[in-house]
Structure formats: structure tokens, C-alpha cells
Amino acid sequence: MKNINIKNDAGLLALALRLVVGWTYFSAFWRRTILENKLDPDVAGYIGEKFNHFLPNALGIKPIILYMVENPDILWINMVIFTIIEGIVGLFIILGLYTRLMSIGVFGLAMGILLGSGWIGTTCLDEWQIGILGIATGFVLFLTGSGKYSLDNYLMKNNYSITKKKAFSWLASGILPVRESIFPKVVLIGSIFILGMTLMTNQIFHGGLWGKLHNKSVKPKLEITEGIITDNKLSFDVFRTEGVDVYGSWTIKIELLNSQNESILEYNQEDLALLQNDNIANYYVAKIKPGKHSLIIPLGAKAKLTLKDENLKNLPNGSYNLKITDISGAFWEHTIQKK
């Protein structure tokens, strides 16, 4: 094997980057399987619920997320597979084994994070930064491979037969078999693509280039649809699409008002805390449920609520206003036409 000037060993220079990024991904596996069991759908902190949080504003991959959160068994299988892949990619990157192949894994995992949850982050656009930096890191590690302190280097140094194959340079480490005249263009095109992805998602998710800056993780937002009044029942769909992902929106009042703004139906926070299963039909893994003092609506949760009241019987046809109030004072309204 031809000796490489250590000062010019790009893989060695990227060692700190390789170790930190490797641990970033391996630690996800470690947290979910060793420190806690976050793959159990019946325990708090189940990773599938976190995945459900991505749904409202995911970019491009929303149909995939929707399918999985609507099918809990398929979601669980994918969360297990996803966790195993993160563990393998992270460990192999730390060890410097098949570094370039694993760097593609880093790139792909980071792209999933970016498109799925790049809009989430209450203070520093957290998930967007993690995603976009992961993409850039994956690209850099593919270009550099691993240097002196890696298993790839150990295999090459000891002339294992596998290192003689051309594919080894593409999948592991060593000099990339790309002509010197083309290599700078590969670096430039890849870098411009990643910069473009950075600017595009920064603008779409946060308005980071022009217009008004926005952060969808700061305040809760509810969408109310499918409002229907029949006999003594009021039913409607409620979907929480924005706000902090680590705790719910606390609904303290649901009321139905007529065109004169007179109350027809009112559920206060004590009433909402006593709702039963037949009042709430959840669509996804993240579930709307009664809390001790209110109705809790997690990020990404959607359910059909059915409320009963004798005042709804023989209600005249017309326009009615459904109003949902959060503990913060924010409220959302939906017009229902009874025909």
C-alpha cells in the first residue's frame, strides 16, 4: 500500500467529525434499547409517537408518515428497523468500517430527519439544524473516507484481499477512483446541492430567507373540520398541527354558540377531564385524551370528538359557531351549518 502523507490524510483530519456524528446516530439506538425501552408502544416516550409529531408539516414524505401512524403494527416494525439501522450506521462510522457506505446511511437518515421534522424546534430550529448538518457531514465523510485511526485503514494496511477490489474504495476508504479533473466538480456540485437544500428548507419551514420569520413550534394550533349536529350529538374532527412537541395543548373549554353568540352547549375543563372512550375516536398513534384538569391534545394527534347535550335536540337549522379554547387563552373556531 502506498503511504499517504499524514498531514494530507483527509480521513484523519475528519476524525473528530466522524466520531461525533457516529455517536449521534449510535446513541439513538443506545437510548431506545439500553437506557430505556422506547420501542414499546405501551410506554411513555414510545418513538412512534415522536414520529407522529412530524406529520402535520413534513415536507414531501407526509403520505409515508400518515400511512404508518394510521397502521400501528407497520409503524412499530419500521421504528425497530430504523433504530437498528441507526445503531449499525453510527457504530460503523465510529469504527471507520465501510465508511463511505455508512456515510450514505448518514446522508439518508439526516435527509429523513430534515424532511420529516425540520420544522420542529422551539429555540434554535433544532431539528432543521440536525438534519441539514447531518446531510453535509454524510457528504464530507463520503469524500474523505476514514484515515489512520479506522478499521478501513487496518484492512488496507494489512493488505486483506477485500481491499484489492475496486468496490472497496467506493464503499470503505482510500482514494476515490474519480479522475482528478472531475473530482473538484463532484465536490462543487454536491456542495451546491446541499446548500440549495439548506436554503430551500430554511425558507419553507421558517421563512429564513425572505418574508416573515415564523416558528411553528412555539404556539399550539388546532384545525377543526367535519362539524356535524345530529339529534343530541355534536361531532367534529380536531387535529393539532403546530406547537411544542414535548407536551400537549390543554383544552379547557369547548362551546357551541348560535348566530346571536348565545351558548347552546358548553364543556368546561372539568367536563373535558371526564370524557370517556366513546367520546374520543383517535386516528393516529399520538392520542387525544382527558387529563386531570383538561383535554390533552399532543402534537400530530387527530381525533373525532363526540359530545352529547339535550340542548342540541330540535335545534333549528342555521349557522353555529364551534369554539375551542386552550389554557393559554388561544382559541379556534369552526362554523357548522345545520340543515
Characteristic terms for this protein:
single chain; 339 residues; alpha+beta; Immunoglobulin-like; six-stranded antiparallel beta sheet; four-stranded antiparallel beta sheet; 11 helices; 43% helix; elongated
Produce the secondary structure layout.
Elements: H1 10-13, H2 15-35, H3 47-53, H4 62-70, H5 72-95, H6 99-117, H7 126-144, H8 151-157, H9 166-171, H10 183-206, E1 221-230, E2 233-242, E3 249-257, E4 263-268, H11 269-273, E5 280-282, E6 289-290, E7 295-297, E8 302-308, E9 318-326, E10 331-338
Antiparallel strand pairs: 1-2, 2-8, 3-4, 3-7, 3-9, 5-8, 6-7, 9-10
Q: List the quaternary state of the chains.
A: single chain
Classify the beta-strand content into a percent band: 15-25%
Largest sheet: 6 strands, antiparallel
Query: Outline, from the CA principal axes?
Result: elongated
Question: How many runs of DSSP E, i.e. beta strands?
Answer: 10
- H/E element order: HHHHHHHHHHEEEEHEEEEEE
Helix coverage percent of residues?
40-55%
Radius of gyration: 26 Å
Total domains, how many? 2
Give the terminus-to-terminus CA distance.
83 Å
Number of helices: 11
Class from secondary-structure proportions: alpha+beta
Note poorly predicted spans: none
Mean pLDDT score:
93
Account of the 3D structure:
This protein has 339 residues and is an alpha+beta fold. It has 2 domains: 6-206, no CATH class; 221-338, Immunoglobulin-like, CATH 2.60.40. The protein has 11 helices and 10 strands. The protein has helices at 10-13, 15-35, 47-53, 62-70, 72-95, 99-117, 126-144, 151-157, 166-171, 183-206, 269-273, and strands at 221-230, 233-242, 249-257, 263-268, 280-282, 289-290, 295-297, 302-308, 318-326, 331-338. Strands 3, 4, 6, 7, 9 and 10 form a 6-stranded antiparallel β-sheet that branches. Strand 3 (249-257) and strand 4 form a beta hairpin. Helix 5 packs across helix 6 (99-117) and helix 6 runs antiparallel to helix 7 (126-144). The longest helix has 24 residues, at 72-95. It is elongated, with a radius of gyration of 26 Å. 34% of the residues are buried.
